[in-house]
User: Fold these one by one.
Assistant:
Number 1:
Amino acid sequence: MPNTKITGLGYYVPENVVTNKEMEGWMDTSDQWIQERTGIKERRYVTRHEEGTSSMGAKAARIAIERAGIDKEDIDFIVFATLSPDYFFPGCGVLMQRELGITKTEIGALDVRTQCTGFVYGLSVADQFIKSGMYKTILLVGAETHSMGLDYTTAGRDVTVIFGDGAGAAILQATEEEGGVLTTKLHSNGTFAEELAMINPGSHGGYHGDVEKYGYNDSAKYGDTFISQKMLDDGMLYPQMHGQLVFKHAVVKFPEVIKESLDEAGLTAEDISLLVPHQANLRISQFVQRRLGLRDDQVWNNIQKYGNTTAASIPIALTEAWEAGKVNPGDLVCLAAFGSGFTWASALIRWM
């Protein structure tokens, strides 16, 4: 059975830097308040009407393809992870495929919608395809355009200050050598689904909760329920987050799922060369680092510069770490994420 090797990495972040100081002019917040709670100093936003989720994914993918030393036509399959797609449908996978100009071979494109864990879930899917022998070269992308859907008023500050835009990509290839992706662990629990969610617009029509709470009119007419006037008037078309609850679960599930991967591989936290956590909150990453007993140089954090880019955060951070010489052959690299769903996941990679 072949193993899965990462042969190329790339990332792209927009040129527009938005600092905490700038946000002070939009809402009742402060640089100190944001840094104390999240560790974030600045984030990147797309240039509106010029770039988006699939175009950023394509830019990151081109870099990964070049670094892998392959031709784009060598790609057998695409996995695209995002919670902020260009369109409600079709998904970003086919849009990026078109932008990259790899439609001639008509390869499959799969979109993954597990939010913050999207890249690790996508890695697991790609790994299984390669190990089964179905595909030999897979393009895996995580990309997000949060800036188009945030509430830039004081009412939305707890969520808005956290998120940024960007994309990361990896080329995964089959190899007969020992190493590569050792294990992936995926979990979910929908009990708290609405505690970190963008509920509207949606097709639920209030089915999952009080009709009035979700901004729907009690109407028998079809066509009245996708976006209502109440949603617009009450600012209900934005993501919502119960931050303390998310933090409480994240600091438990992060170390649990990392330990699960380590146990299956017969390894311990002491064997980890580098932990690349999903960049949800610097305080969460620091807590997990302490729980695992890792040094500062064993954890890669870049949320200070980019904010939380959800599905893009791990590939952006992994690429940065690799470019900085922090990822070398023989290293044990651990990826871990927790987020909306709730979903959580981990992966162990023996770098090749």
Number 2:
Amino acid sequence: MMWGRIPGSSFTALRSSIFQVASTMTTTGFVNNFDYDAWSMAAKVILILLMMIGGCTGSTGGGIKVGRVLIVLKYTYNELMRSLHPKAVMVVKIGDKMVKENTVKSVLLFVQLYILIFIFGVLAFAITEASNPQFNFLSAISATACCLGVVGPGFGVVALDFTGVSEAGRALGFFFMYIGRLEILPVILMFLPETWKR
């Protein structure tokens, strides 16, 4: 029986889904004996989004992190409400604590840089692997998401490993894993002339 393109009973499908979601969000890189690359496109898109979100704030997992995503969502909501009520004083709160404006700005900067680097990575993988007939656009997106989020497995050619990718593609993957592991800002600051003046 197929349950949403996942083979086996509904219990097996649920167990496989929970395992893959947990493995993806925590960026542990574990895979089971089921073929998650054969899942539907909707499931793959959800897993790619989870790769980008990553683990909880303070964890060693990669990705943007859940706390940053929550701050961005709350900030976006506040700005939408402010457009309806221009004189309203609205602050971003996590629980009962107010998030400082400098923290919100740094989170917004990080998320913007993450998305820009992600777009650049997808284009770079697509150009680097243009001669590889098995490397499609989904492979480029998942390769960038799994490298930048330091997740491990992706989809398509990079479903289990990067053996189907060229040497240049592997070097590119290493570069994006390096950026993702150091959480982007230190790597970008390293290339700014002002950093070397200190």
